[in-house]
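Morning!

This is the sequence you dropped in the shared folder:
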Amino acid sequence: MYAFLKCGMLGWCIELFWTGMHSLIVGNGKLTGYSSLWMFPIYGMAAAINPLYQIIKPLNIVFRGLIYMICIFLVEYITGSILMMTGRCPWDYSECRFQVHGVIRLDYAPMWFTVGLFFEWVLRR
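The structure's back. Tokens below.
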């Protein structure tokens, strides 16, 4: 339960930082970050990285990062699709170039690779 709460809070912080930096790029000097309460349990699911790590720890960092990235895409796709069907999805990538059904962006692959390894590091401490 502690890992779930830790990942949920950390995910929220990462998202606020990411959206705040994006607002700066588009000209908002206030660095306005935003998120949704729906994101807490979604990020909390990153706690599953810890038991997954126990299985894949013999693999090198590149393969582990790729596995985490794929898992994050799967969770994002499934949760995003469910939230879209209910009209509650806080994100919509429909207008983006490398999107899949408006719920994932393939150009975020390097970010999810890195975030997965970051969560691994946090959870192993």
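Headline: The mean pLDDT is 96.

More detail when I'm at my desk.
O.
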